[in-house]
Structures are given as C-alpha cells and as structure tokens.
Design brief:
The protein is of the alpha/beta class. The chain has six helices and six strands, in the order E-H-H-E-H-E-H-E-H-E-E-H. The protein has a six-stranded mixed sheet with strand order 2-1-3-6-5-4, sandwiched between helices.
Length: about 170
C-alpha cells in the first residue's frame, strides 16, 4: 500500500504571501523521510469553512492516507483549526494529540496550551500540529513512528495486534 499524505498550513499571513511557510515544509520533509508521498500541499487562511472544506477534499476526493495540518491551534481568536477539524471527523483519536502535548510539556509548560486534535474521516487520518517549525518537529516526531501502523489498520492492511496483512509495509 502506498502511503500518501497532504499537508495543510493554516496562516492568514502565509496565505497572503506575507510569511514563508517553514512548518509545512518541515512536515513534508519528515513525512517523506518516513516513506509517505506528498500528493497535496496548500496554505489556507485561518477560516473555519476553508479549513473544513480542504480537509473534506483531502479525505473524500483525494483519498489520502494522512492529512497533517500546521497552525491555528493556539488561543488567538482566529485559531480555529481544531474546531474545523472536529467538524469533519467521524471518530476522534485522542492519544495522538495527548502524546504530542506530553512531548511539548517535556520542553515547556506552555505545551499544555496547544489545542491540537486528531481523528478519522473515512479511511483518512487527520492530525493537527502546532504552527511553529520547532514545535512541528517535536510534536510530529513524537507520533510519526506509530501513525503508519494506525493507517494500515484503518485501511485493512494490518491487524490490530501488529501483524501485517497483504501489502503491509510497517511505515511510520
């Protein structure tokens, strides 16, 4: 099974061309190093409907295995990525953001202020990451080794106990 991914950056300034997106690029590098093929990358404004629509398109139309977002997970009034993500999820996967926050809190107590969420839509896993490149590398690095196995289970390629079915690659 080919592991495909989409990377969405939520940033008003990035969308307007006023800021370079280093966190989205970092996610792409990390995913590619883990064996994923990036099939879509996009910068979006911090807008609930735009985010929800892009997530639906990645899962329902592009049918990617994994969508990783960056940005919009803080306390600012326009930080609505977790709410937009939750609006399109069919099932939540709370262990992923819990692990990311735990890793962040090892570095700074402010890690508890990050509001990422994660979950499943169809056969797509969606994971929110913070907006800074440093935080992305820490948070995604903490969970990336396990994501591939979760996706294989979601797509019927691997069993729950770690046995790989036909085509299992053990990515992650």
């Amino acid at each position: 099974m080919e592991m495909t991914a989409a990377v969405l950056t939520m940033s008003d300034k990035g969308y307007e061309g006023l800021r370079q997106d280093t966190s989205g690029s970092a996610i792409c590098q990390m995913l590619e190093a883990a064996g994923y093929r990036i099939v879509h990358q996009e910068i979006l404004p911090d807008d609930f409907d735009a985010i929800a629509s892009a997530l639906k398109a990645c899962a329902d139309e592009r049918k990617v295995c994994l969508v990783v977002t960056t940005g919009g997970t803080g306390f600012a009034p326009r930080d609505v990525t977790p709410e937009a993500t939750a609006s399109v999820l069919e099932r939540f996967t709370p262990g992923i953001p819990e692990a990311m926050r735990a890793e962040s809190m090892r570095i700074t107590p402010r890690g508890m202020l990050s509001r990422e969420t994660a979950g499943i839509r169809g056969q797509t896993l969606i994971v929110n990451c913070p907006g800074s490149e440093k935080a992305v590398r820490e948070c995604l690095g903490a969970v990336l080794p396990a994501l591939g196995h979760g996706i294989e289970i979601l797509r019927g390629v691997a069993g729950e106990c770690g046995s790989h079915g036909k085509g299992g690659h053990g990515h992650g």
